[in-house]
Specification:
The protein is an alpha+beta fold. The chain contains 9 helices and 12 strands. It is about 30% helix and about 30% strand. α3 runs parallel beside α4. The relative contact order is 0.16. It binds coenzyme A. InterPro entries: Acyl_CoA_acyltransferase (IPR016181), GNAT_dom (IPR000182).
Length: about 325
Amino acid sequence: MGVIKLINDNSDIKELTKIFNESFSDYVYPLSVTESSLTQKIQGDSVSLEYSIGLFSEDTNQLEGFILHGIDNLEKPKRLYNSATGVIPNARGKSVERCYNTMIPYFIEKGIESIILEVVTTNERASKVYERCGFKIISTINSYKGLINKDSLKPYLFKNCEDQVDSGGSMKIKKLDSINDEVIEFLSPKNKNYPMMIPTWSNSIKAITKEFDLGFNKCWIVTSKINNDKEVIVGFLSVNDQTFRIRQLFVSPDYRNQNIATNLIHTMALEFNENTTFNFGIDSKFDNTINFFTKRLGFVYLLSVYEKLLNLKKE
Ligand SMILES: CC(C)(COP(=O)(O)OP(=O)(O)OC[C@H]1O[C@@H](n2cnc3c(N)ncnc32)[C@H](O)[C@@H]1OP(=O)(O)O)[C@@H](O)C(=O)NCCC(=O)NCCS
């Protein structure tokens, strides 16, 4: 049946990489990691091995399965993010259910109130397992992918990256060398009177900042001068430069339809090889964003994931 315990220092990145690849050998699409890419995922998702579950062989004590959990706060985490789950084929059979049933009382005791995850919609096996554990769908995210044809974007570009706009201000694109409070405030949905797409865990500003500080994320902002005086942020783009996942693309509603997103995308593309295939996930409720990626950029549909939540807090 296997022994279930926290991973802590019971495993290392070499073993985790091996078990990850064995577990994902029959996944819904080809997926493999290297020690380096798995380390980046672990760091970007704030995975804590003190909150991650390992399934170990009773006979050999070797790792046979894992649930890696990111934490939302170092001191007092309240939410866990299931960053990756896998069990090698020989050890399967209600293993995820057993892992969660065994460890959830411990997580509740530690103050954890919820666990969130994403599962590819066509991964019926995993979806079924999570449903049995009590996870409920909270949103559907569609991913799109494509090359960026810089020539086709030329008609929409700001002149000299500084273009007069109707508001009387001027637009500037800047590559960030740090993610400061002004950027964080710009992306915060708090006190905003318009709907904002709530990014999934790996695309949150917290994860972006982590990736950025570790050197595998690039960010740009567009600023505009208001009253010919103060410069304010009106657009933001972030991309993971290893996976080419566009983490966030956001333009203030007051500044939409002025090609700000196009200019951000074009500036980003200048830093990558022309054969780079980028991808981006969009909450299915945000039609405008879907139209931008499919119509303006020509991206095509890749796959969808369900975001699922398990509430551990007693109502
Ligand atoms: C997902 C995974 C961890 C589940 O392992 P497990 O908890 O031991 O799951 P089980 O083997 O008990 O299978 C769960 C259920 O799915 C069913 N199932 C198996 N293959 C299936 C398939 N191709 N389609 C639909 N259901 C399937 C099983 O019959 C079982 O249901 P049942 O108990 O009603 O018979 C494991 O399959 C795995 O590592 N898969 C590859 C990586 C992956 O998909 N990870 C999740 C990413 S979100």
